[in-house]
Amino acid sequence: MTTVLRIPRHTDLIAKMPVLEAYRQRCEARPAFQKALASQMADFNEDAALAG
Hints:
Blueprint: H1 2-6, H2 18-29, H3 31-51
């Protein structure tokens, strides 16, 4: 669910709904989410390092 709320995070769509914004922030603050995101981003960072 958090991923769906993260997609429009650069717009004001979620920010207009404080309950959803708070939920997104709580989800992103969870250690399991941070670990999963770091793992996912590591693949991108690794590919960028190889390309550059």
